[in-house]
Specification:
The chain is of the alpha/beta class and 152 residues long. The protein has a domain of 69 residues: Nucleotidyltransferase, domain 5, CATH 3.30.420. A five-stranded mixed sheet has the order 3-2-1-4-5, covered by helices on one side. The protein is elongated, with a radius of gyration of 35 Å. The protein starts with 25 loop residues before the first helix and ends in a 15-residue tail after the last strand.
């Protein structure tokens, strides 16, 4: 029992052989679907971790994070706490009142780049004087295009 595979004109061994130049993507789709199912089944198991029965408590829920305290020194020397302009004499009492109302948090200090170093240090000293133990300085990141400092 034999089967002849040819182009139908009965040329035998001398028949023109043409390879199939089409890509069969069915096996690839099958493999991808199996992988998708495997990942869909295992992903929730990886996140869940170890099953634990947590005890119940009467403690209050942790509130949402508070609005950050940002102290800004403008180019004209004006001082702002968040969006409110503050007199330099009232800065320490304002920050002390915020600390009493909201608790201890980080104070972010921003200053215009044209202000003198001494003015920024004075502002940092007054923020520290108001009782905040953690103070961070904010800056604007440089763009990658002209940061090398070389001229062409």
């Amino acid at each position: 029992m034999t089967m002849s595979v040819g182009n139908g004109n009965g040329g035998g061994d001398e028949a023109e052989y043409r390879p199939i130049s089409e890509i069969n993507i069915t096996p690839m789709v099958d493999v991808m679907l199996v992988l998708l199912i495997i990942f869909m089944v295992t992903a929730p198991l990886l996140v869940a971790g170890v099953p634990v029965e947590l005890p119940s408590t009467a403690a209050a829920r942790i509130s949402q994070p508070k609005k950050p305290v940002i102290v800004s020194l403008g180019s004209d020397g004006s001082i702002y706490v968040r969006e409110d302009q503050v007199n330099s004499d009232n800065l320490v009492p304002t920050l002390t009142a915020l600390r009493a109302a909201e608790g201890e948090t980080v104070v972010y200090v921003r200053a215009d780049k044209n202000r003198a170093y001494g003015e920024v240090m004075d502002l940092l000293g007054r923020v520290g004087q108001s009782g905040y133990p953690r103070v961070s300085l904010l800056s604007q990141p440089k763009a990658n295009g002209g940061a090398s400092g070389q001229s062409q």
